[in-house]
Amino acid sequence: MAITTAPTITAPAVSWDVDDGIATVTLDLKGHPVNVISRAVKDEFLACFAALAEDARVRAIAFLSGKADNFIAGADIEEFVRLGSAAEAERLAADGQEMLERVARFPKPIAVGIHGACLGGGFEFALACHYRVASDHPKTQIGLPEIQLGILPAAGGCQRLPRLVGVRAALDMILAGKSERAAKAFRLGMVDELVPPSILAEITTAAARRMAGGWRPKRKRSGGFMGFLLDGNPLGRRLVFRAARKQVLERTGGNYPAPLAALDSVEYGLKRGMTEGLKREAQQFGQLAVTDVSRKLVQIFFATNELKKDPGIPNAPPPVRVKRLGIIGSGFMGSGIAGTAVAQAGVDVRMKDSDVTRVAQGILAARAILDDRLKRRRITKYEYARLVALLSGGDAYAGFGRAELTIEAVFEEISVKQQVLREAEAVLAPSAVFASNTSTIPITRIAEAARAPERVIGMHFFSPVAKMPLLEVIPGTRTAPQTVSTAVAFGRRMGKTVIVAQDSPGFWVNRILAPYANEVGHLLAEGASINEIDTMAVRFGFPVGPVTLLDEVGLDVALKVAGVMQEAYGDRLHPAPGSGIAALVKAGRLGRKSGRGFYIYKGGKKRGVDESVYPLLGAHPNGGPRPAEIMQRLVLGIVNEAARALGENVVRSPRDGDIGAIFGFGFPPFRGGPLRYADDLGAERVVTDLERLAERYGARFAPTDVLQEHARSGTKFYS
Amino acid sequence: MPGLNGRRVAVVAGVRTPFSKAGTSLKDVRAVDLARYATRELLERTNLDGEEVDEVVFGQVVPSALVPNIGREVSLLPQFPREIPAYSLNRACASANQAISSAHDQIALGNADVVIAGGAEALSDIPILASRRLADILVEANKAKSLGARIRTFAKIRPRDLVPVAPAIAEPSTGESMGQSAEKMAKENHISRELQDRWALRSHTLAAQGTADGRLTAEIVPWLPTRPGTPAIQQDNGIRTDTSIEQMAKLKPVFDRRYGSVTAANSSPLTDGASAVLLMSSEAAQALGYEPLTYIRSYAVAAVDPGWQLLQAPVWAVPKALERAGIQWKDLGLIELHEAFASQVLSNLQGFASKGWEINEDIINVMGGSIAIGHPFGATGGRLVTTLSNEMRRRDVQFGLISVCAQGGMGFAMVLERR
Fold first, then answer.
1. ipTM score for this prediction
2. Residue pairs between chains A and B whose CB atoms are closer than 8 Å
3. 0.80 cut: is pTM over it?
4. What residues contact A681, with CB distance under 8 A and at least 6 apart?
């Protein structure tokens, strides 16, 4: 800039200088990796805008972030967590709205240049400004993720976004808490211009200057005729709202109030006008902010964030950087791991299986994950071509010598796994890590075949790998610390939330899942129907019921796991006597993958219960236990086993345990996980309920010592 | 042939894709994909880190207009750092040989330590050209300033302009096709139909043996299908185990239907495939822990008037290479002689014999040649170096020779040594 006129006022976060009538305002929250809007920042904003309003030299404003790859990540969540009451929360929202109203009505036009994450309150600020320029960089992500924390965009987001991009697109963003890449945001009309990052500041300033000269952007509502039909008139909007409400209820089972509140705010605002809409938005925010659901979702958010930085073990040595990943076994799991590793971590993947045809199938299956990303335009065709070239394989161990990490996903049988381990060790570099993707076999036992057991570890992925967010990392007794940190770090690069679990049968997830799955057999034997069991679990908040889950996992796999659990834990985790998963497997019903399990599957879709299952199981659905009791038996079985396993230090903390249950098998997030749920019920009540169940249904429900101890002393898992 | 500063160049390893007759199992694959695949698998087999490679050179005879520099696309494989320079070249059927020779030169000069050289050809994917008039009109339309002008330009297109032009395998200087040249050589050198057919049968028989005992397939990296339901390709598909002299005799000559002797059976087929060879200075090979298969002792290129016997130049190239190697014909323990046509092979041998050299068929093309295995123009040189090097190691032969005839009346020869 040629002339920078004094005085330049510097504040901790907001600074500006004026050049030729245009004030360039820069937000840079010192000492923070990203910009967030806190009360302090708001005060600075207000001071800054007050000064700019006064300053006669300033005719327009260009607003930019001082961070390298971040615009504004959102409102300060720490501030939000400290909110004590609905009234306080409502006030906070109203304050934010008022500030953005000032921005929107500011007498001098404001253009923003967006590069990097522009989320939540950050995007609401951008919405209040008069012109939005975004960089076309992949780091530029724009959206309103508030719903994911059980709240709603309350700084005018529910009002300004639908007015800018139409109701359908706005609801799509707000209700799912999505963020979009810049190109999509531009297509939707969320930003006015898309430019390379190198000229972002220049173009933003130019836009401000044009607006200073009286120019205003003309925005034509996109969407054409359908847009007019659905977004452009009250009647069409009513249809849209009705459909959206129905969809939300279907998706949330009525367990999450935030999307409905957001929907209401949007609708109310469009009917009654901006001012009334803002009021409604703030009220709704106030109510949501203090709900238990929001609290739980925020706790999960914090827990996942902590886990992102947690190396998995104390005093962890730095992980080995994996550039090349070996995968042995190119079946469903192997190819899922391969495809996800390429798509997420961009590593070179070499697969090995017993013959080239199998390997070829595995590579194709892994590539399907990339195909999917290409189809969703998450990657360009050039990125796709590059990623595809990272997938290769053969029927020998060629190329494994340079793999820093090798993951085996061969048949779940200890002798096969040990054989593969021996073969691999013969070709792997001495420093390479060997991970076993096993769900049931103790890592320490697999490692008995190893020359270097310190470099053997378990990495238990969940199926389908590309979609399931959890990874259990299981060190064996002789596993070296660096092996653990390498596995944890790589799991994270694959986009997984990683928990470290003890090498005991079932590890964490399958262990606490076992009583839940076993209870299905007991319930069926007592005359409950398949539908009833699944319905009760879904009503509790599970995404699918336990019977459907068994079908998804595969009944053969489930049977194997059940056998291992029974062997390890005896009667407690004993499937119902005569309960016939084995009979189903024998009859060739393996669940979804074979088209028949408890349910019938056609064309990849679940088609309803296969009634012929009951005779196979020797069961007769004739009422069975009361629905409420079905729910209780399913859930408390998990809670009891989770408490017991935590007591045995299978996971390091209740946090890891709850995250494992939520991300591993869909324990309802709004309940915070089995341990958090026990805390909420109170250990005393859990114990009483379990004792009653034990009396009626057997010792498997006997409350574990850990729970009894908490009940006696009135303590909680989370102190 | 140590370089000026005494640097020797080692052939460390070589691989190739299966060679498939054009229009068959690799028909949907582009040459660049074949080249990248072969190179990548070469890295896998040798456990070589892409970071070690200094340069990539690839040969291709009929390049795609969309991928003019195939070598660079190979060196942009994600297994390499993006900073590896690469180029592509064309010395007709000796293109991969030239790529290897050029790599040799850079290593011998001390400009590089590790080079990947190879070649690729997808004769299923040759560029089909638009007529000159259509091309002119399209260029003009592109320059048109208004829609009207553009439409007026397009209006000039006549139906005959839309007939595509396929490139022919003919000499631009004489108009004579490769087959016609082979026919001419058969007549001028008095090579009978029966002798040609016998050589072709020998090629198939030996190639089938090499495939059955795994010597030939050892250099092949299986091509994994890129679509579900298609099988992996693990072998060359031109090698025949079911043919006989009698069956071959039934075929009609292609290029001279009345008096000719060159048939589809005694010629090499149009083929898709790629090869890649890893070359290193002997110092680099030692430092990185590789045991070289062979070393390049010498090479030479010669050319004759294309209007004379188009494929007879090896008779001039081979003596030059032997002289540069400082060895005699009789010192050779194995010979890989490119088989474009049986008439050309027998003409070349006749030429060698005329120098007083004894022709020992037992050491020539011991696993068959291009007639059976196939001949992807740009890739064959890499196959010859790989096949010869592997066999020299198996038999522990000290000196081996490669002889290749090429379009334009050129001949290429290279001497490899084991120690």
1. 0.89
2. 48
3. yes
4. none
